[in-house]
Amino acid sequence: MATRDSNILFDDIFTINGIDTEGKRFDRVSRLYAKSSNFDMTLVLDYNVELYPLYKGEAITVTLASSLSVGGITEDDEANRWRPGAKKIKGLDDDYDYVMYGRVYKFDDAAEGKVTVYASFGGLLMALAGSFRHLQNIVIGENIYILMRR
Questions:
Q1: What residues have CB less than 8 Å from 8, skipping those under 6 apart?
Q2: Is 9 exposed, middle or buried (0-12, 13-18, 19+ CB in 10 A)?
Q3: 3 pLDDT more than 50
C-alpha cells in the first residue's frame, strides 16, 4: 500500500475473471473484470485490446499514480517528458506495459467501509471497488495515471 507522500495512490495484483462478459460493444475496446490478490478489491476496466491483449485467468499488476515521476523530478521535467527531443528521464511508465491518463469523476460510498472509485481515461472507464482504507489517497477531480503490467 502506498504512503500519503508517494505519487503511487494504489497498487495491487489482479486476476482477470472475465473479459467482455456483457458482450463486445467496440472493435478495439474490451472490458475486463478482475479480483485483487491482496486487498480484496474488484476492478472493471475498459482498455485497448489491440495495444494490450489480455486473457481470462491472467494476472496483472495495476497501479494508480498521481504522477509518472520517480524521486526528485521537478514539475517542469514532468511536463516535458513526452515532448519530442526531450531528454529521457526514467519514470514509472518505464516499468509498465500499458499506461493511460485520466480523471477521477465519482466516488461512491457503500456499507461497511466499502467504496467505489470511478475514473475515465479518454472515455475508457474504470470502476475500482473495495475497502476505503486502500483508496483513501484518491480524490474526485484528480488527474491520475493507470499503469499495468503482466
A1: 2, 63, 64, 65, 92
A2: buried
A3: no
